[in-house]
Design brief:
The complex is a heterodimer of chains A (about 450) and B (about 110). With about 450 residues, chain A is mostly helical. Helices cover about 65% and strands about 0% of the residues of chain A. Chain B is an alpha+beta fold. In chain B, a hairpin with a 2-residue loop joins strand 3 and strand 4. The radius of gyration of chain B is 17 Å and the shape is elongated. In chain B, about 15% of the residues are buried. The mean pLDDT of chain B is about 90. Classes of the chains: A mainly alpha (about 450), B alpha+beta (about 110).
Chain lengths: ~450, ~110
């Protein structure tokens, strides 16, 4: 290798981390999919998978270049469009394409997170368009603000102002949460919201998804060290304890408030903890992480009730978990950052005064406001032109069938009787085969 | 002949079936059912939001018996299904005009 700094250890860890972070999006799909009703689980999962498709392509075309190139504090340039010229270049100790692949996975999961706010009622084509536009004009610039370091000529939040966001509390979670709130307002409430039960249809799926998220999150957080080193180890341990503590924090609140600790609560608490530790995992101690986890679990358990008070149908609590959890973690750095890990800056409780806390607050609010306003405008434009929401009839009968011509489960004996024809099993009394012939059984 | 229909708690199904088998009942039809009686439904809590679930899962047994066995069959079902707590279910009977065994064409009590 021409680059004397090149590290095969760092490269191996980043390749593995990239795969871990990709797995989070299918994990999220299960986490969300289990929480919706049986008639829209496929659509919920489909929104995540479609996001993987759209964002991966945009990333290669211009996303990486807009996020991680140039010297402007607010947006990258077009010097690496099509990942041009990156086949042999390095980024620090790893090949630049490996860094680009790792960051791509973050760009994928961020818009996918938004889908939980608007479950059961979105036109699929409108969602795909929203993902493409929002990722281009919100995620790529915000990733540039937060994640792009270029010796003081990088993004304004991370490289210039010096706010800490180790793995994306602002760029990923506050960003997605604020956009989720905007879309929940644009789209309005589901038919029957607060009147009809909208119970999770498959809690084991929710817990499976939470487990996949937790597993993948080690790549998200420890991988964000962009090296296989001590910082990655700190991030790894902090991720584990904060998540564990948050799962406990959430179910303690439930036990006190509702009388029972629930599986949905333990899964939600874990995700809230993962969200909150994301920005902070590289700058606080494991003991502080326990405190952050407990705090995040408890605060988010209470925050998910806000939608009922304010009357917006954030269906799967993207605001209550990701935006609130993101704020908790991002601000917590201003209190508990330790100079051993930051290389200088200290949180309020380590004698650093309010300086760092102020920077953290600016970062959090700037991302929240930018994302909310842009998502609201994009959502409104889509709604006024092509329409963002399905018809009431489709919503009531279920978007799985209306949008995708599929149903998730075959639950009754009556529908899987019938003889097979040419190896296929028709559902009802007849089937259509490829030559447009209808065969009646 | 009579049709005895019983709606009981699902976990009592095995006890009821054992009681009827030892009484000499040769067959029955069991279906999963949902409903409510005086106990109404139950509540569930998801992320702090409480939902009232009106319909409670039950099983429905249907047994065809000869007239003279009706009261004994009812007693067997009731004693096997009773827990003493709310939601134990109901048993009722209706007269049956005709019964035919599909395989043999036998009719009436012979078909039971």
């Amino acid at each position: 290798m021409a680059n004397p700094q090149f590290s095969s250890g760092d490269t191996a860890w980043l390749l593995a981390s990239s795969a871990l972070v990709l797995l989070m999006t299918p994990g999220l799909a299960f986490f969300y999919g289990g929480m919706v009703r049986v008639k829209s689980v496929l659509n919920m999962i489909m929104m995540s998978f479609a996001t993987i498709g759209v964002v991966s392509i945009l990333w290669v075309l211009f996303g990486y270049s807009l996020a991680f190139k140039g010297t402007n504090p607010f947006i990258g340039d077009l010097s690496a469009v099509g990942l041009h010229g990156l086949l042999k270049t390095d980024s620090g100790t790893i090949p630049e394409l490996v860094f680009s692949a790792f960051q791509l996975m973050f760009a994928i999961i961020t818009p996918a997170l938004i889908s939980g706010a608007i479950a059961d009622r979105v036109k699929f084509g409108a969602w795909v368009l929203f993902v493409a536009v929002w990722t281009t004009i919100v995620y790529f610039p915000v990733a540039h603000w937060v994640f792009y370091f270029n010796g003081g000529k990088g993004g304004w939040i991370g490289d210039r102002m010096g706010a800490f966001d180790f793995a994306g509390g602002t760029a990923v979670h506050i960003n997605a949460g604020a956009a989720g709130l905007a879309l929940a307002l644009v789209l309005g409430k589901r038919v029957g919201w607060r009147r009809d039960p909208m119970r999770p249809h498959n809690l084991p799926l929710v817990l499976l998804g939470a487990g996949m998220l937790w597993f993948g999150w080690f790549g998200f957080n420890a991988g964000s060290a962009v090296a296989a080193n001590a910082t990655a180890g700190v991030a790894f341990m902090n991720t584990q304890v904060a998540t564990a503590a948050a799962a406990m924090g959430w179910i303690i609140v439930e036990k006190i408030r509702d009388g029972h600790s629930t599986t949905l609560g333990v899964a939600s608490g874990a995700v809230a903890g993962l969200v909150a530790i994301t920005p902070a995992c590289g700058t606080i101690t494991p003991m502080a992480s326990i405190l952050l986890g407990l705090l995040a679990g408890a605060v988010c358990a209470l925050a998910v009730g806000l939608k009922y008070r304010f009357g917006f149908d954030d269906s799967l609590d993207v605001v209550g978990v990701h935006m609130v959890g993101g704020f908790v973690g991002t601000l917590f750095i201003g209190l508990f950052a330790t100079s051993v890990l930051t290389g200088g800056a200290k949180g309020l409780f380590y004698g650093g005064g309010f300086t760092q806390l102020g920077k953290q607050a600016v970062a959090a609010f700037a991302v929240a406001i930018y994302s909310f306003v842009l998502a609201y405008i994009i959502g409104k434009v889509i709604d006024k032109t092509m329409g963002f929401r399905v018809s009431e009839e489709d919503e009531l009968s279920g978007v799985d069938l209306a949008l995708h011509a599929e149903t998730a489960y075959e639950l009754t004996m009556a529908t899987h009787t019938g003889r097979s024809f040419a190896g296929a099993t028709p559902v009802g009394g007849s089937m259509t085969i490829s030559e447009d012939r209808t065969v009646t059984q | 002949m009579k049709l005895v229909t019983a709606v009981v708690k699902p976990f009592k199904l095995d006890d009821v079936r054992a009681a009827l088998t030892s009484f000499g009942v040769k067959g029955m039809t069991v279906t999963e059912a949902n409903g409510y009686g005086r106990q109404r439904g139950h509540s569930e809590v998801y992320r702090g939001a409480e939902y009232q679930v009106d319909l409670v899962p039950k099983v429905r047994l249907e047994v065809l018996v000869e007239d003279e066995d009706v009261n004994d069959v009812i007693d067997a079902v009731v004693s096997a299904a009773r827990t003493g707590s709310i939601g134990d279910g109901k048993v009722w009977t209706v007269p049956v005009e005709e019964v035919v065994r599909v395989r043999t064409g036998e009719r009436g009590p012979d078909a039971l």
